[in-house]
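If you are new to this repository, start here. Below is one unmodified record pulled from the training split, so you can see the exact layout before writing a loader.
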Amino acid sequence: MFAAHGQDALFNSLSLDQSTADRSTQLVNQSAAQAHWGPVQFSAGASTGFSYDDNLNGSEVDPQSDVVTRAGISLDGFWPATDQSQLQFGTSIGYDEYLRYTGNNGLEISPDSALTYSVSLAEVVVTLFDQLSYTRQVRTEAALANVTTLPQLDNNVGLRAEWDPGHWVWLASYSHDNFWSDAAHEYLNRSSEYLVVRAGWRFAAATQMGLEASDSITDYELDTQNNNQNASLGGYLDWKARPSLTLNLRGGLVFFEPDSPSPPGSSRTIIIIGPPGPTNSPSSPGSSVNSYYASVQITHQLTDYLSHSLSLDRSLQAGLNQGSSYIEQLSIAYTLSWSLTQRISVVASASYVDGQQPLTLAAPNNPLILTAVTEDYQQYAGGLQLTWQCTDHFAASVNFGHSLRNSNQSGRNYTDNAFGGQINYAF
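And here is the target side for that same chain:
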C-alpha cells in the first residue's frame, strides 16, 4: 500500500541497507536442514494469486476494471566464500496477466532484489553491489493519474566502503544508476551518478547518530525532461530504545538544480502558457528548489502477538509525469500487525500523501498548446490483509485495499477499490 521515497542517492543507499538486513535476518531464522546447500544458506518460495481492481487506470472519467492473476518465485542466498568475504543475493520475480486488458501483461522484479559481495579488511568492509528492480505498478505512486502501468527498470551498481574504528562509523558510497521505461514513457529514460558519505558515533551496538550527505547528477535521454543535480545534507539517528522499540530519524536540507528547460518537442511548435514563477516556485518546471527532507520510522513490538509501525517521509524526488522535473511530497503510513492465533494473523494499514509537482497539460481543443500549472494532490489509502499459515510450508491470504486521490487539476481525481487472494509455498 505504501512505498516511501527520499532523495535519490540517499534513498538507494538506505534501500540497500534495509534489503540486505531483512534477508540476513530471514536466513538466520531458517533451520539448518532447510537453509543449507553445501556452504550456501538459502531459502526459496513460490506464490500464485489473483486480484480484482475496479479502477486500475486511476481515471476520473473512464475507470477500467480487470482481474489480474500472478505467479512468482523468490530466492534468497548467503555464501561465506572465505573467512573475510561473503556473497549475498535475493530476488522475487513474478508475472502479471490481465484478463481483459492483455496489453498490460508483464514481468515484475521486486525493488529489494540485490546482489552484494563484501570483503573485510580489519575494521574496513568493502562491498560491491548491484540492485535491480522492474515494476509496472502505479498505485503506490501518488503523483500519477490516468495511468494503468508504468514499466520501470532500475539498475544501480556501485561500490561502498565502511570503516568502524571504535565508536566511530564512516561510510562512503558511489554508484551508477540506469533507469529505463517503455516507448510510451521513454521521456523517463536516464542515467545518474550517486554519491553518499556518512560520519557517525556509535553509542551502543544498535544505536548511532551523525551527519550524512548525498549528491546525484542525472542526465535524461530526451530533452522533454530537465537534467538536474539533487544534493542533500542532514543528520540521522538510529536508536534502539529498548528491545521492542526502534526509532530512526533523518532530516536536513535538499537542493534541486535543473538545467535550463528545453522545448518539450522538436518536430512541432509548442506554446507554453503560464507564469514563469520565481525561484523555489514549483509553477516553473525549470526553477531551482531549496527545500528540506525529513524521515521518521518507528517500530514497536507491543506484545508477542501485536506490533505496529509508523513512518513519515518528506522528500524531493525525480518527476514521473512528462514535463515535470520533480515531485515534492509528504507521506505518512501506519501499519498494525496482530497474530490472532499461532497460524492466523491480520495486518491493517493506512497512508496519506500530500504533494505538489509542476506539470504541462495540453489544452482540451489544441494539443499543441500546453499550460504550465502546479498540481496539488492528496492520496488517502487503507488496506486489510488476513493470512492463514495452513502448514509449515503453505500460507494463504486475502486482502482488500481502497484509495482516493484528490487534485486541484480537473480529470486527475479518482477512487479505487481492489481485493484479491494469494497462496505461498516455502520450500
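Two things worth knowing about this chain: The chain has one domain: 8-426. The first strand starts at residue 36 and ends at 37.
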